[in-house]
Every structure is written in C-alpha cells, then in structure tokens.
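Just scan my protein:

. . .
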Amino acid sequence: MTKPLAPLSALSSIPRDVRCAADYARLAPVFMAPALFAHIDGGSGDDLTAAENLASFGEHAIVPRVLRPVYEGGTACSIAGIARPHPIMLGPVGWQAMMHPDAERASAMAAAAAETCFIASTMSSLTLEDIAGSKGSDRWFQLYMQPDRAVTRDLVRRAEAAGYAALVVTVDAPIQLPSYRALAADYEAPAGPANLRDYPVKAPAEITRGQSKILNGFMRDAPGWHDIAWLAGQTSLPLWIKGIMHADDGREAFANGAAGIVVSNHGGRTLDGAPSSLSRIAAIRAALGDASPILFDGGIRSGTDIFKAIALGADAVLIGRLQAYALAVAGALGVAHAIKLLREELEACMALAGCATLSDVRAAEIVLQGQGRGAKS
C-alpha cells in the first residue's frame, strides 16, 4: 500500500490556480493530512446529508432577467439592524489550529480585512479572549450550552467582557455522530478545547441496566427550550439560535427570546439523512414572515450558492468548510481572498439575473432544475 504524501504547509500567497472560491475546496486535500481532510470534508454516518447540502444547490436554478438597470446596485444589507457591506459571514469552525498554526486568529484577521463578522467557536483552538485580541472588532461567540449552568453563565460573561456582540447558540448537536469515512481514516479529535480547559468536567450520567446509554445517559444533560429562555435572561447580548430545520422550532426560538435563527443541519454532522439546509429555508421563511432575521449555513461554495440561499429566504450566509479549506491553503490571506471571490461571484450572478440589490435577489425566481416547476415564484 502506498504511503500518502505529507500535506504541504500553508502558502503565504494566493495559489495561481485559484480562479474561484470553490478552488480552495479542490486544493485543500493537498494541504491537510488525509485523516483531517476526511473529518473536515465529511459529516456523520455515511455523509449523506453533507453530500446533499452540496447537491441541493445544483437542483435549483436561477431564472435570468435581461435589460434591467443594475449599475447603481450593491451587496449592502442589514442584519438585525446592523448595516453590512455584504451578506457573507464566517461561521463557527472549531479546532482551527489543525488547519493552520495561526488558528482562529488568522480567520478573525481575514474577517476584518473582508469587512465581515467572525464567529468564534466554543471549540476553538484559542480562547475567546485570545481571538478578541486579533485585528477587528466585528465578532460573535458561538456557544455550546454546558451541563452546568454556572459554566455556561461564565462563558457568556467572558464573551461580554471580551467585546463579542452576539451569541450564536448551537442547539442541534446534543450528541455528535462520527463519520464512517473519518473513522476509517483514523481521525482523532484534539483534546480539551481552550475555552473549556479551566472548568471541571462533569461525570457522565449513571444509567441502570436496561436503560439507553444515549437516551438516558448522554441526553440527560441536553438543553431544552427552558434553557434558552433562561439564557436570554442572563445576558443583554442578542441570541441567534443555530440548527433550525423546522418552522415550529423557529417559532419556539423567537418565543423564547431569540433575536434571530440560523437554518442549518450542522453541515451534516448530526442526523445523517436529514434534508439539506437549502431545502428548508423557503418553508421556514414563509412560516416566520419577512421580519424575522434568518441566517443560512450549509454547503456554500460559490456566489451563485449565496444568491440561491438569499432568494429562498436567507438574510445572509455563514461560511464554514470553505473557511477551513482556505485557511489550510493560504492562512488569513486565503480566507480573505475566498470571501472576496464569493462577493464578486455573487455580484456577477446578480448582474446576470437582473438584480441590483439583495432585495431584488429575494424576489428572484428560482426553479427546480429539470423538473419544469417553480420552487419559488
């Protein structure tokens, strides 16, 4: 059996053969160890939902419009009352030191250069305080609620003190299932995320004979809607609830104090066989109405993908895996360049679809590819 080549170190310049944002995904296997790439590129189980997130964009087509004035247009938007130059944000990606030695500091710097928000993960390689010391002040903190409310409260206080402007509460991963592909590649997750290293580890729940290790054990400390309501009462920071795939859960989120939601299936890393994030956005937007702030996460690889997500109901999008790929290839420069390419690709798509603004994109016609019927009119 041939031994795999050692991964290349991240470059200090943009590779000449990067012509579109998706090229960072194409190049990433050369810059990541095989086990790491299997983990980053995969999801859970057979990776069915992770693959569906990508395939779903190809199933939707944009109906072009012609001879429309777009020369005074732009990608400016407002997210929950905050004006932004474009709708591309860097979503939470944990353990970034696996991709690049500068870890989350590099991605935060890239976000500042690209005039966008960086969302730091609870599972980051650097502490939230270290990340806050990076260039740029536009940052949110992604929170995994902890079994001990005192620990959750302390994480929130630390985020407030470090200047994070919002909390993104991930609710769709009370347990996280492995990817068979990553297991086969012998991937091992790093131990002890920096943000949690000073807190005591709660002992696993004891179960009796005949009880389920998952349902009666792991899920015993899983948060519920009452915990979201409690959290909303602990902080003045706006809460964004990430992991919404059902309209009723979206309603529950807002009823329990959320400022906005993120439509996401966790990149296919939880329930393998769940539908794509893109397939859920239109129904959730229709149920919640135009006034509800909704972000999208799941499979973005191009500006055309961003156009489709916004046309179907998103206000803005989060970039996860593509951020990791660009970071591995070219560090902060690569991440900033990927955002630049995504924005330019979005602008080109808007021009050819006759959309001067993101409001026009929201009104664009999207059809299901090859089926002759409208997905949204």
About this structure: The mean pLDDT is 94. Residues 23-188+226-371 form a domain with the TIM Barrel fold (CATH 3.20.20.70).
